[in-house]
Amino acid sequence: MPNSIVKKGDNYKKSNFLITSKYKSSILENKILSIALANADDIHEESEGLVYEIAVSDLKRKMNISKSYGSFYDKLDDAAKSMTGRTIGTSNKKNRTFDYISVVTRATSKDGIFRIIFNPALKENIIDIKDKFTVLKLSTMLSFKSSYSLRLYELLKDELQEIKWQQDREAIAAGKKNTYRQENLFKYETSIGLAELKLEMGVVNAELDKVKRVLQGKNPDYEKAVASSPEQIFKSWSDFRRRVLEKATEEINEKTDLHVEFEADKAGRGGKVVGVTFIITDSKSNKNSPKASTEVLMDDLGDLDIVEIEDFDIDDLIDKVRLIISENLKTKEIKSILQAADNDISKIKDAYELACKQSEIDNLVGWMIAAIKNGYTATKKKKDYSYSDFDQNTYDYELLENELRAN
Q1: Domain locations in the chain?
Q2: pTM for this structure?
Q3: What is the CATH T-level fold of the domain 3-299, as seen in this structure?
């Protein structure tokens, strides 16, 4: 595909290797990568690798962040830790091949400048992309609020572009023009196995040791890899359909040039869902860019490991918790407390009142989650619950959070 198709400005290239790799990432990480790739001309080579630098203020401006419930620095710090600790890769069951590599080797913030260093081994996938890539719009990618929407859109655009190229090649070979270019409309279907889709969208974390061991085998079994994951969120088809696919396709249909519908692929006597068929209509005249007024709240850059809350305004709930708890907690920590309390503000209030009666607490978040899970309240009369009744070493915050994800 000639580079002339990629115009300067909003359009940029993303290698198909990066798009089809299986990994879990936050919306902020995905947007940082999109901004860097869209400014590939500014990425330069140093001894450490491929370096991209941007002022933190410019990063916020590009993402159109207008309101925050926490520090952008905290969000950026979390994203940097995650990006530098990640390996991504692809595996092919048919060919019995796999390829895993770290993308970002270092990320720093100093004097208001955010700096990321890409693995130099990925030069052909970062700054020297000649083929096997998909053209994306930066404005579209930055408009997404859900990482699942962004990842699904990338995957479908990759599939669509491959089909178009194939039809172009066939039309040229036959000495004909491709009709979809004349009609300004293109419709197609593509099917993806359910387990593979969960891995590619990041619903299941392919970086977890148990999952990675299955994927790195001679004959990767996606269903086995998904089943082996200790993080079992959206495990049932109904949850995955309702809380991931329906929300992702709704956002894609609202903000992009694609209109997406999907159907479950079933097999066996019991009609088990084994895959998803997407029906996509692509119109070059359809909503080519999101509304310029789209604003992104700081909380929209949060950790997608925490299950999205339906029927509630998450920002309102977070604000209510901040009014109750005087300590300065991160948004991620508040979400964990809300998750433990099933969004019941009264449970959080009781747990905090009880915490305030303790002489000393090293880990307030872990302590409150433990209190909520065990049903302790400040109103119980029969027993005086002193701080010694709660073993803080038992309620490690990270362990508790992982436990909540699995339930």
Answers
A1: 3-299, 306-406
A2: 0.67
A3: Arc Repressor Mutant, subunit A (1.10.10)
